[in-house]
Write a structure and sequence with these properties.
6% of the residues lie in helices and 41% in strands. It has 527 residues and is mainly β. The chain has a 16-stranded mixed beta sheet that branches. Strands 3, 7, 8, 9, 10, 11, 16, 21, 24 and 25 form a 10-stranded antiparallel beta sheet that branches. The relative contact order is 0.11.
């Protein structure tokens, strides 16, 4: 059974588990089209993006009727796409597409085209495509209105999305758990710099009509912003891990010094190592719990996420990384106790670069948040050299959405938990402030070690000193627990930490990295 057969089986099972029944593609009127049919190819799209880059940026935000701008949250939620008008509803296709209506937060029209046999025709807006039960009248809306975005369904499973593209250049997808979580973006500009962030947007999409036996969906997008244009090609392949092959061609209008390639956006409010916002009844609340990296030199890094008191920035220098991603490693329901949005089922997302990306860094931005409605985590690849106006920049990569990353540090143990708290020795008076770290490792060679193996925790800190270090077997996870106290100096600047377990000088584990923000001096209580 291949990856697609697995997902088809899971879709079928969904109907037998209390979810809405699956519907065979039949009935409904053909979707209307607007404008002339024109030839389309990815080469043409790149030419279009290059031409637009030579022109001043045109901002089309708000170019929609006032009635849509005034929609309340409830009225916008009352707009539902009618399933019978889905693209390819009446065709023997593995995929169907439904469209999102403009309004509320989505004020910039997105134009959507269907591509068949190399010819593209724009999909016309039609009020009959939508069922509306809101109180605010929508008014007379033109057929060239456009849409906010679209969602993809697989084998007529209207209950659960396969992927969606909605808002700026954001898009999401699911793996075998059929659960949304974190998002990806087409491009990030000036993220976490202190300057106002720029959000490029996909202004148009071209969707290829799939043939009867086609099990992948091809989508193209035009990206536009004050700083750059771009042409994107997506090949979407469902499976236990949904795979997206992405090709991006960028044409800057100006020099861009802080650009993020393959940006990922997630949410982290509270977890085992970061309890600043721990006022909710649920033990943990996050879409992702760590940033994983496989460097160009072959080193595995794991950086637990945090909800910091102030904006935090981490940069990991590298040359042609082999991969990075925001992962949800902790998949135990008991750790979340959330039976509504199921954080234990949220997908991980791994970026696999195609070819050598050269020198740069994997950057991580963590923004304070008080609740789970705000995506406060961003990770991306930042090229060392700025992007120059008038040039073409090509990036290709593969996105893996699912429970696990497609590659694992099998020869090394992985971090399975990070916990922190006040340091010191219980029962002994504390003379100074220290902060305790307990890091659990499992897998790899650890379960094969003798109980008296001389496992050493090798710890590096950028400032301060380390004390009370240990590494001992932890039978409950068939692994090891490393513990140490960090005694910070008087500075309140962040402290960088690294930890790896070794035996006879050889690494047994991936490298745990962390950024610790010492509290202000008047908050370093000793209890």
């Amino acid at each position: 059974m291949d990856r697609r057969d697995v997902l088809k089986a899971l879709v079928a099972v969904a109907g037998s588990c209390g979810l809405p029944p699956l519907v065979l593609a039949a009935g409904g009127e053909p979707t209307r089209r607007v404008g002339e049919t024109r030839p389309f190819s990815y080469a043409w799209l790149k030419g279009r993006a290059r031409h637009l880059a030579s022109q001043p940026y045109q901002d089309h935000e708000g170019e929609i009727p006032d009635s849509l701008k005034r929609l309340s949250w409830d009225d916008y939620q009352a707009i539902r796409f009618r399933q019978e008008h889905a693209l390819w509803r009446n065709q023997p296709s593995a995929f169907q597409v439904q469209l999102f209506h403009l309004g509320l937060y989505f004020l910039t029209p997105v134009h959507i085209y269907e591509v068949a046999e190399g010819q593209a025709t724009e999909v016309a807006y039609d009020p009959d495509y939508f069922a509306y039960e809101g109180e605010q009248p929508l008014g007379d809306l033109p057929e060239d209105l456009g849409f906010a975005g679209f969602r993809i369904h697989y084998h007529s499973n209207f209950a659960l999305d396969l992927a969606s593209f909605l808002g700026a250049s954001y898009f999401r997808a699911v793996g075998a758990d059929m659960q949304y979580g974190l998002s990806a973006r087409g491009l990030a500009i000036d993220t976490g710099t202190g300057r106002e962030e720029e959000f490029p947007r996909f202004s148009a999409f071209w969707l290829e009509r799939p043939s009867a036996d086609q099990q992948v969906l091809r989508v193209w997008a035009l990206l536009d912003s004050p700083s750059t244009t771009g042409a994107y090609a997506f090949t979407i392949d469902p499976g236990r891990n949904l795979v997206m092959d992405v090709d991006a061609a960028l044409y800057p209008r100006r020099e861009i010094t802080r650009v993020g390639i393959a940006p990922l956006t997630s949410m982290y409010q509270v977890g085992e190592n970061s309890r600043r916002m721990d006022y909710d009844w649920r033990p943990e609340i996050h879409d992702s719990d760590g940033l994983a990296m496989l460097t160009g030199a072959g080193e595995w890094l794991w950086r637990p996420l945090q909800n910091p008191r102030q904006l935090a920035f981490s940069s990991f220098q590298d040359d042609s990384p082999r991969g990075f991603g925001l992962l949800q490693r902790d998949r135990a329901f008991d750790h979340y106790q959330d039976d509504g949005v199921f954080y234990d089922r949220r997908p991980s997302l791994w970026v696999e670069p195609a070819g050598a990306w050269g020198r740069g860094s994997v950057d991580l931005v963590e923004i304070p948040t008080v609740d789970e409605t705000f995506d406060n985590i961003v990770a991306f690849w930042h090229p060392e050299q700025p992007l120059q106006a008038g040039r073409e920049y090509l990036f290709s990569y593969r996105l893996h959405w699912g429970e696990r990353a497609p590659v694992q540090p099998y020869e090394l143990a992985s971090v399975v938990a990070t916990r922190t708290g006040l340091g010191g020795v219980v029962g002994r008076k504390r003379e100074y402030f220290s902060w305790r770290f307990a890091v659990d490792f499992a897998g790899g060679p650890l379960r094969m070690l003798a109980k008296d193996a001389d496992v050493v925790p090798e710890i590096q800190v950028s400032r301060g000193r380390v004390e009370i270090t240990s590494a001992r077997p932890l039978a409950a996870i068939e692994g090891y627990r490393a513990m140490f106290d960090l005694v910070p100096d008087e500075s309140e600047d962040p402290i960088e930490l690294r930890l790896v377990l070794t035996l006879n000088g050889e690494a047994l584990t991936e490298t745990w990295v962390y950024q610790y923000q010492p509290p202000p001096g008047d908050q370093r209580t000793l209890y």
